[in-house]
Design goal:
The structure holds two protein chains of two kinds.
Chain A (H helix, E strand, L loop, with lengths): L2 H11 L20 E6 L6 H4 L24 E8 L12 H9 L19 H9 L8 E4 L16 H4 L16 H9 L11 H23 L4 H26 L19 H17 L5 E5 L18 H5 L5 H27 L1 E2 L2 E2 L4 E6 L13 E6 L10 E10 H12 L19
Parallel strand pairs in A: 1-4, 1-7, 2-9, 3-4
Antiparallel strand pairs in A: 2-8, 5-6, 7-8
Chain B lengths: L15 H13 L21 H5 L2 H12 L13 H15 L14 E2 L2 H12 L5 H4 L20 H18 L10 E5 L9 E4 L2 E4 L3 E9 L3 E12 L7 E6 L2 E7 L8 E9 L2 E9 L3 E2 L10 E12 L9 H6 L8 H13 L5 H8 L8 H14 L1 H4 E2 L11 E3 L2 H13 L5 H8 L6 H13 L3 H12 L3 H5 L12 H20 L12 E4 L1 H7 L10 E4 L12 H6 L8 H11 L19 H6 L2 H9 L2 H15 L13 E2 L2 E2 L3 E3 L5 E3 H11 L2 H16 L5 H14 L6 H9 L2 H4 E3 L4
Antiparallel strand pairs in B: 1-13, 2-12, 3-4, 4-12, 5-10, 6-9, 6-12, 7-8, 7-10, 11-12, 14-21, 15-16, 17-18, 19-20
Helix pairs in contact in B: 1-4, 3-4, 7-11, 9-10, 9-11, 13-14, 15-28, 16-18, 21-24, 23-24, 26-27, 26-28
The chains are: A alpha/beta, B alpha+beta.
């Protein structure tokens, strides 16, 4: 409105506005690659999802339509299979197995108690290898906090459905649901304990507190049996992880900026608002390079949420058993579309975040998908999967590719891990590295 | 197994394998699972003797899963008669145990505290409330409960939360403040964040258009703080610049800023702020710009901010009960003594001198007693001795089962009955070694059940057993059920909790959980039930005539959480009854089976009962639904929020049914009477759930046997709920710890 003020702004805070003439020459080192996995539960309405045409001329189907603004940045991959989610003699429990297998490729141990076991998940494999480069090894968030009573799916422990990420085959990496807590963790001032101490005093005190915890655990470990030791090792891992972060924080120049994000209030009652807040936090964490690995669950597998805001009173899981009923299929597609809208908004956000000449999305590999193809059939082949981002130039999006029958989803993961610089001989049930991502 | 399944009574003899299994396998299985090219690499032909079969539990449990799920024999093959199939399943169950994933049994692993236990422990140790349930990641559920040692893992983020909690609780438990010099958090203009429409210049941050400048502060406790901003204005137009002070967008004050840049002024307001991180903002509210004003000095109104401060807390702190008692200035107890006592309580066993040394080493020797105790509290709470229920094996193990020591027993009791730490008396008995005596244990259990803290058990156990958390997520469709809202949801939950608690506290027969002539309602719930004369939101006990209300089956909570958003689900209700009242869960549906057609056409064409009946004509569904559906259909007079009805979608409701064993009933009341007439399955189910909760693990065969004996002891007189609880704390399962090695 005010020419004078405007000019003053440009002079005053120009450095923060990424004006071309102020930009540094392109760094020799490329922007760090990021990995994000977004999960949609209960499969999808595949008829409304899968494009008919392959290659660059693919059409945006009704469900994928919200991705139109980023069409050139997405790679629709059809035909991937999650064999670990199949029964293999274990009977019912497709939801639990699909969730447990989605990022691990593992066939979960059928137990509601002792012997909980899936496999290391792809995000955690990456976090273990490259997570020490960032303040947080990885970030796990989701819209649902897991079931808190009763039996879950067909004799499987609820942990299989409430977690996608597994740090070890036996230890899930729990997710956060409350955006406020995620914000405080990522962007909060290194957490004032309320002791009224200086930063240096706090660092000193905390170091001795963590030393104490570690020594205490070590002395207990000596008197415990093997199973109990494993439990205590989970605790010790957590302690060491905090120590690593504190050491890092000492060398960090400044606390990370919250990138224009406001401290969220309570968990929004509206589903879409909740999911968008979590998406913003992931984007903010990527932009500030607080972490390079994240998982985002739009709903726990088997979720029976009713999506009232889009006029759907029935539960999602209930609807997914559509029995080919047209009305139910339409509602399933509407829920799918809502989830895709959340993805589309997130991708646009990442695309708008500039890093030199490219965007955060250019340097990202976002996998969106479900461990079930069609919720009615509980099939684990022909999974709905979209890969978004350019993986730092290693992926050529803007296409629809159909992979050969029974190609493991883990083949895709292995190919993405390579790009992250995490070279593993194999992963999950991979039979090789998925080809054709680059062209 | 003791449990006589409501629907199927398995007849088994010693020669079950030769008589039942071999012929079945020969007829239905070996055609594919035999010969030169066995399907799925499974050779059932090879099991010619019982001994051979017994040697390979894995194969037979897999066979059981396939058979029970109806996946085998495959669809195109003839269905085996149900009776023959049942005999095979029964033999497998008897031989390898009912639980498919048979536990090693009897040994509880290192268990971390649940969120509820963490909260209650902090409350009992310090007298302060810490909302662990909101802060910590959810506890995963196994066997229906959130406290099963084997499924409670610890994630990195969980440990992070533990550290944060330990520090915050320590700061709240021991408040160290100097009222004369409250802390001042000062943020100069260059460090202000979240600036919209502003830029830095000499003299501060200039907000040239409506917008904010934030200071991010972290406050130690809930309390009164003074929020201050040093500001100046550039006036223009008809009014002076106006500024608001906000805390997290909540406006706490607003001011007219009449001073200029050469003489900034401090504007302040005292306000209440919660502990934790906050954004305190100075906001410019009334931008004004008129480029063509003849007076150049009257064209642009702006606000300048020099700094923002938050001072405080400035009110008197509320001291935790811990601080008031232990750090009482008059008592002048040495820090060491306080820390030693506290560590022993929080860790549920004595801390040795070395431990106390290490806790005291968390602060410098020159610090005040309060500072030393505060630092030690953070240490006590971050220690795995607090976070995990630790049971070490005794130094001289017996053959395979041993008594846990008295400290572990006290910890088990407190976790079971209070979801918390032992109190002084319990710890005292443990110290004297008097707790493992059965009589002492029973007496302590009685005392603990009389204590107010037992409400934790009543509500936590009842909620998990009856699956009340599902009620929190139930979403009845407002179009169908406009009566349902949040207050009604809360009243539904409260009814179930209060009913359980009253049966427990008043030492009433456990069977009253199933059938009772009283219940608890408030006005909203009473209206739903058609009970006249209840006014107000307070829940109160009411007498109900023998009818649908009184007992869990008639509670709106249960009826709602077992329904779909738009309609009842007799199958879900039937399954809920089998799982939670009869401990006889049906196997999961085989993959690929059809679901009930819920389309508008289907709903108007036939009653739900008829549609379910059609569903049952599918052989794959029939076997299980024959025992699931009748139970659920009996409740059809209660709609998806538990309100009475006689019609559904235009069809008169027929709530009659019979069980495969021939017992028949009409409606909820008769079903309940059938269940109550032979109360053993219900009581046995309740006993199993209580024991699983108490032991935090799956029940082993030995545990099951012990429970069986326990029930036999009651004979004809059904036990009270209290008696059941006491009986469980005095079982060997509760008092012992199975041998290690695994």
């Amino acid at each position: 409105m005010r020419p004078i003020s405007r000019r003053t702004v440009l002079r005053g805070v120009g450095a923060g506005l990424a004006l071309p003439w102020l930009e540094l020459p392109k760094l020799p080192r490329a922007a760090p690659l990021r990995m994000l996995f977004v999960y949609t539960p209960n499969g999808v309405n595949l008829a409304e999802w899968t494009p008919r045409a392959e290659g660059a001329a693919f059409e945006l189907t009704p469900t994928l339509a919200p991705l139109a603004p980023v069409r050139s940045e997405i790679l629709v991959v059809s035909g991937l299979t999650l064999d670990g989610a199949r029964p293999h003699g274990d009977g019912g429990g497709d939801h639990a197995r699909a969730s447990a297998a989605f990022l691990t490729g593992a066939h979960a141990a059928k137990t509601d108690g002792a012997g909980l076991r899936a496999g290391i998940s792809v995000d955690q494999a990456a976090a273990a290898a490259i997570g020490n480069r960032t303040r947080f090894r990885s970030l796990e968030v989701g819209c649902e906090g897991g079931q808190q009573a009763g039996s879950c799916d067909s004799g499987y422990a609820c942990a299989y459905q409430s977690n996608l990420s597994w740090r070890t085959p036996e230890t899930p990496a729990a997710k956060e649901v409350d955006p406020r807590l995620v914000f405080e963790r990522l962007f909060g001032e290194a957490d004032n304990a309320g002791f009224g101490e200086t930063k240096a005093e706090r660092a000193r005190r905390r170091k001795s507190l963590l030393d104490f915890a570690r020594e205490d655990a070590a002395s207990l470990r000596a008197v415990l049996g093997a199973d109990d030791r494993r439990k205590l090792d989970e605790y010790l891992h957590g302690i060491r992880e905090i120590e690593r972060r504190l050491e890092r924080a000492e060398s960090d120049v400044a606390a990370p900026a919250a990138a224009g994000l406001a401290l969220p209030a309570a968990i929004p009652r509206d589903y879409r608002a909740h999911a968008d807040l979590l998406a913003d936090l992931i984007a903010g964490a990527f932009q500030a390079d607080l972490t390079r690995v994240a998982t985002f669950s739009l709903g726990d597998e088997g979720s029976n949420r009713s999506y009232r805001s889009i006029g759907i009173a029935e539960g999602h899981h209930e609807l997914s058993h559509h029995g080919s009923d047209t009305a139910k299929l339409a509602k399933v597609a509407a829920i799918d579309r809502l989830h895709v809208e959340i993805l589309a908004r997130l991708l646009q956000k990442l695309a708008a975040m500039r890093e030199g000449e490219t965007s955060v999305l250019d340097a990202s590999m976002v996998v969106f998908g479900s461990g079930i193809g069609d919720g009615n059939r509980h099939n684990h082949d022909d999974l709905p999967v979209v890969v978004a981002g350019r993986g730092g130039g290693s992926i050529a999006p803007g296409r629809h590719v159909r992979v050969p029958r029974d190609t493991p989803l883990c083949n895709l993961y292995l190919a993405l891990l390579d790009r992250m610089g995490v070279e593993l001989p194999t992963f999950g049930d991979a039979t090789g590295r998925l080809q054709g991502l680059a062209s | 197994m003791f449990l006589v399944s409501l629907a199927l009574t398995f007849a088994t003899g010693g020669d079950g394998f030769e008589k039942s299994v071999l012929p079945f396998v020969a007829e239905h299985c070996v055609r594919c699972h035999g010969g030169a090219h066995p399907q799925g690499d499974l050779v059932l032909e090879a099991f010619r003797t019982e001994a051979a079969a017994r040697a390979d539990p894995a194969t037979w449990l897999a066979v059981r899963a396939k058979l029970a799920a109806g996946e085998m024999p495959p669809e195109e093959r003839p269905r085996p008669p149900r009776a023959e199939l049942d005999l095979v399943l029964a033999w497998i169950d008897d031989t390898f145990g009912r639980l498919a994933a048979a536990p090693k049994g009897g040994r509880v692993g290192l268990r971390r505290l649940t969120r509820t236990e963490y909260e209650n422990s902090v409350r009992d140790l310090f007298g302060i409330e810490y909302r662990a349930t909101d802060e910590f990641p959810a506890d995963d559920v196994g066997r229906g409960f959130d406290r099963i040692a084997d499924v409670l893992s610890t994630s990195d983020i969980g440990v992070e939360k533990y550290l944060r909690a330990a520090e915050r609780i320590a700061a709240q438990a021991v408040v160290i403040e100097d009222p004369a010099h409250p802390p001042r958090r000062h943020t100069d203009a260059p460090a202000l964040v979240g600036v919209t429409n502003g830029h830095l210049r000499e003299g501060g941050l200039l907000l040239y258009s409506n917008g904010d400048a934030d200071a991010v502060v972290s406050l130690p406790r809930d309390g009164e703080y003074v929020v201050r901003a040093n500001a100046w204005g550039e006036p223009a137009g008809p009014e002076p610049p106006r500024m608001a002070l906000r805390v997290d967008r909540r406006e706490v004050a607003h001011f007219e800023v009449r001073v200029l840049a050469d003489a900034p002024k401090v504007y302040e307001k005292r306000t209440r702020i919660a502990a934790g991180e906050h954004r305190v903002a100075a906001s410019f509210l009334n931008d004004y710009y008129k480029a063509d004003d003849p007076d150049p000095a009257n064209r642009d109104r702006n606000l300048g901010v020099v700094w923002i401060e938050v001072v405080g807390p400035v009110d008197d702190p509320t001291l935790s009960s811990f601080q008031a008692q232990e750090l009482d200035a008059a008592a002048r107890r040495p820090a060491r003594e306080i820390v030693e006592r506290l560590a022993a309580r929080a860790w549920r066993r004595p801390a040795d001198a070395q431990d106390v040394d290490r806790l005291l080493a968390l602060s410098t020797a020159g610090a005040s007693a309060a500072e030393r105790v505060r630092a030690a509290i953070a240490g006590i709470l971050i220690s795995p001795r607090f976070l995990y229920l630790l049971e070490t094996d005794p130094a001289h193990p017996g053959p395979d089962e041993r008594h846990v020591d008295d400290w572990a027993l006290a910890a088990r009791l407190a976790a079971f009955l209070w979801s918390s730490v032992p109190d002084e008396r319990l710890a005292g008995l443990a110290a004297q070694g008097k707790l493992h005596d059965r009589a002492a244990l029973a007496a302590e259990t009685q005392r603990m059940l009389d204590d107010g803290r037992a409400t934790a058990f009543a509500w936590d156990f009842a909620a998990q057993w009856l699956q009340l958390p599902r009620l929190d997520h139930a979403a009845p469709d407002p179009a169908h059920f406009p009566v349902f809202d949040e207050p009604l949801r809360a009243a539904m939950r409260a009814e179930t909790e209060l009913c359980f608690e009253s049966v427990l506290r008043e030492n009433r027969p456990a069977l009253e959980l199933l059938a009772s002539d009283t219940t608890f309602v408030n006005e909203r719930l009473a209206r739903l039930y058609g009970i006249p004369g209840v006014r107000g939101d307070t829940m109160r006990r009411v007498h109900v005539e023998p009818g649908v209300r009184g007992g869990v089956l008639g509670q709106a909570s249960i009826l709602t959480l077992t329904s779909n958003p738009t309609r009842t689900s007799p199958a879900k209700r039937g399954k809920w009854i089998l799982e939670n009242l009869l401990a006889d869960p049906p196997p999961p549906p085989p993959p690929g089976v059809g679901v009930l057609d819920d389309s508008r056409e289907a709903v108007t064409a036939a009653s739900l009962r008829d549609r379910l009946a059609r569903h049952r004509t599918d052989a794959a569904c029939a076997a299980c639904h024959a025992r699931i559906d009748p139970l659920g259909l009996a409740l059809e007079n209660l709609d998806a929020v538990g309100s009475w009805r006689t019609e559904d979608s235009g069809f008169t409701i027929d709530a009659s049914g019979s069980l495969p064993d021939g017992r028949s009933f009409r409606g909820l009341v008769e079903l309940r009477d059938v269940l109550a007439k032979d109360p053993r399955p219900f009581l046995r189910c309740l006993g199993e759930k209580l024991a699983t909760y108490a032991l935090s693990r799956e029940l082993s065969d030995a545990d099951q046997k012990e429970l069986e004996g326990l029930f036999a002891a009651y004979g004809a007189r059904p036990p009270t709920l209290r008696e059941l609880v006491v009986a469980i704390t005095t079982t060997d399962a509760f008092r012992r710890r199975a041998g290690g090695g695994a």
